[in-house]
């Protein structure tokens, strides 16, 4: 029961976020940036303004809907970059061993020793704010867990008969890694990736909140929170709705990750067959 | 001398719960082991030999459970006993050793302490006395330099030494029955030979009965006085070990013996094609109707495909379950 | 017809000369002595065309390391391996692909040896493509033929490994080993992970394939019954060395080395009830082998010379039976198996 529930709830929340992001222009009532009208400033939520309006009279609902695009883009793209880096490093380190393994291990330990948000902060400080810098900063700083998992899986899979057999059949190293090792470690990699996406959404919010990510007036959930900081007592809806969006998306991704772990875990699979 | 047997299993059925349904992994199992007797259960994977042993020692866990039948230890029904009494029975009277001693030993505790624990737990000794007994126990399983070895951790010992430690733990409290589940499968043949001799001698000295579970016909024939062959959850033949593989009554037993490349047979008879048992071992969830061996049996007729055979008594206390037994 | 000395003879498809594989062990930060594990310590082997050579010994004796060296998966420390007239060790070594077309392996564990995420078809087709077979019809034809050879139906090709039983998986493993038409197949304990009632099927299959496809086998096993049944010649290894080798009949009927006798006596037979243990103790630590003959601490025939002098060199009799033992002549002639 637990297995199905977290997968379904998590999947539904994530699907909703994706749907909102994809169809933002059709779902939004107004343009999130241009449609400012001081006459409507700081309206509380109502039938006209579902989530209320901000100090410039912009519709919060429309901004949250558009913010989904940015938050999810950052989450998905940066995690993809992380996964590719982590898998590449972990797989090659585990397979080849030797000095390359030592080097990758050292690098991974270094990354794990420094909180990734601090690292991302430093990169953002150098590159300056903006979507591209966000993708670079978050995409380069959170691959260490994936790398660890990929390396550990490689080490245990490497001694399996079918990997040995592939070598005996004359497969090259690259072909063995791609056709024999990678497909058999995808399960845990996907789980880590899903959880990492949640982390990236949070990190984007944090960086934008600190003013280093997406700059106003463009709506990202983090930058909206940042702008709403001063009015948290007078106009709480300004922070509640973007905060809720972050909370639900990250919750959804975490539940999805847990649910996927339950099905992709090789142990639970062998128990069922 | 006419008291109840040490352990008696009567019409035992073990259920396996798969999702909403239940299947009988083992059924109609009956056998008895007398005091000091050596009894073997032979079978392939899925035959149910290991779960039968787990049922005897009360270690069946979900999704397995006893569905019917009785297990009596010295005439007393085990299942009816309160949990505390079952535990005492388990440590004191019935002991078990497993295939892989590494997983059965605690990796972070010296082996001497693990043996001593048995004396403290089940015999109420103090640690000082228990440690002394642990050294003696190690010596009794022929571990060299036992007073030094007690301080070793399991990973410092070889597979054979670990299995000796397991035997020392199992025999610490002087049990009446030792259940050995594939005790030497993970070991080399020369080490296996030594462990088997050791088990045989120790148990004979102390009057401990052995229930040995194995897939190796040769091993069981060499250790046990009586042997039961299991196939797909049922005992198909039970005889004295001197006869069972020599004059097999059940076609499955015969098939197993014929399919073995026995040492010396090529020299005597030349290389003949081994007789195969056709087909595959059925899965627990997919046992055939009627006699479960019928799809692989050369003697099978219509009745075998519809009706499960009853037990037939043979001479000299043997029994067989086959419509067309020899 | 005179072959120049040193050239491999035509009927020999594999020769291993003075092969040694040593691993450095230990050392590290605390400066503990870095010791040498002599996994294989100078062995010679010859495999003739169409022959099955049994390689036996306890775990840790080095038989698997020999196999890995022949397969090119383990770099030897010294020695020479000549496969089908081509030297595969050292600089002139064959590339992996060329080696793959000469020698293949069947693994012990039919569960771990098949990629769970590949269908049988993919497992068999990919090596063909890799080795330059490009015509789809030829690929399909060869896969179907191979499946029939190993007793599977071609229509089973699109299934995944978990849909097969242990015996069928081993058949798939054999098909994969044979798909490139190798000349030599190393069988590494090919039946010991299988159910007893299935073993005969696989043993018979391996022997049939050897005849129909003209293969040569190296049969690695601890099950001497299987080795006796399948082998033409047998080599017995102990602590990285060959202690006895010869025709199967010589080895099993007139074993000359005490270790061989121990191994044979230790096999329990269903029809014979005898004492199994004829030695004491276990394999010594290969990092600190005993003084004298390596088997002497366990040997019931050992006397002074055995504890003092290292194992003598392999002494070959005219019939090809070779043994390394100080007391071989005294021991030989006694029956190997205790009488019934």
TrEMBL record, chain A:
Coiled-coil segments: none
Membrane topology: Multi-pass membrane protein
Alphabetical UniProt keywords: Cell membrane, Membrane, Transmembrane, Transmembrane helix, Transport
GO cellular component, one term: plasma membrane
Membrane-spanning intervals of the chain: 6-28, 72-97, 117-141, 185-214, 234-256
GO BP term (any one): transmembrane transport
Top-level taxon of the source organism: Bacteria
Gene3D superfamilies: MetI-like
Record carries keyword Nucleotide-binding: no
Domain spans labelled ABC transmembrane type-1: 68-257
Pfam families to which the protein is assigned, alphabetical: BPD_transp_1 (PF00528)
Keyword Lipid biosynthesis: no
CDD domains for the chain: TM_PBP2
Family: Belongs to the binding-protein-dependent transport system permease family.
Protein name: Peptide ABC transporter permease
UniProtKB/TrEMBL annotation, chain B:
Span of the signal peptide: none
UniProt keywords, alphabetically: ATP-binding, Cell membrane, Membrane, Nucleotide-binding, Transport
InterPro entries registered for this protein in UniProt: AAA+_ATPase (IPR003593), ABC_Ni/Peptide_Import (IPR050388), ABC_transporter-like_ATP-bd (IPR003439), ABC_transporter-like_CS (IPR017871), Oligopep_ABC_C (IPR013563), P-loop_NTPase (IPR027417)
Record SMART domains: AAA
Subcellular localization: Cell inner membrane
Keyword ATP-binding: yes
Domain (ABC transporter) ranges: 7-257
Keyword Transport appears in the UniProt entry: yes
Listed CDD domains: ABC_NikE_OppD_transporters
Entry's Gene Ontology molecular function annotations: ATP binding; ATP hydrolysis activity
Pfam families linked: ABC_tran, oligo_HPY
Domain of life: Bacteria
Chief location bin: membrane
One Gene Ontology cellular component annotation held by this UniProt entry: plasma membrane
PANTHER family, per the entry: DIPEPTIDE TRANSPORT ATP-BINDING PROTEIN DPPD, OLIGOPEPTIDE TRANSPORT ATP-BINDING PROTEIN APPD
Family: Belongs to the ABC transporter superfamily.
Job description of the protein: Involved in beta-(1-->2)glucan export. Transmembrane domains (TMD) form a pore in the inner membrane and the ATP-binding domain (NBD) is responsible for energy generation.
Record's protein name: Peptide ABC transporter ATP-binding protein
UniProt source species: Bradyrhizobium jicamae
UniProtKB/TrEMBL annotation, chain C:
Domain ABC transporter: 14-264
Primary location group: membrane
Biological process per Gene Ontology, one example term: transmembrane transport
Example of a GO MF term: ATP hydrolysis activity
Key words, A-Z: ATP-binding, Cell inner membrane, Cell membrane, Hydrolase, Membrane, Nucleotide-binding, Repeat, Translocase, Transport
GO CC aspect terms: plasma membrane
Source domain of life: Bacteria
Lipid bilayer topology: Peripheral membrane protein
Reaction equations catalysed: glutathione(out) + ATP + H2O = glutathione(in) + ADP + phosphate + H(+)
Family: Belongs to the ABC transporter superfamily. Glutathione importer (TC 3.A.1.5.11) family.
Subunit structure: The complex is composed of two ATP-binding proteins (GsiA), two transmembrane proteins (GsiC and GsiD) and a solute-binding protein (GsiB).
Descriptive protein name: Glutathione import ATP-binding protein GsiA
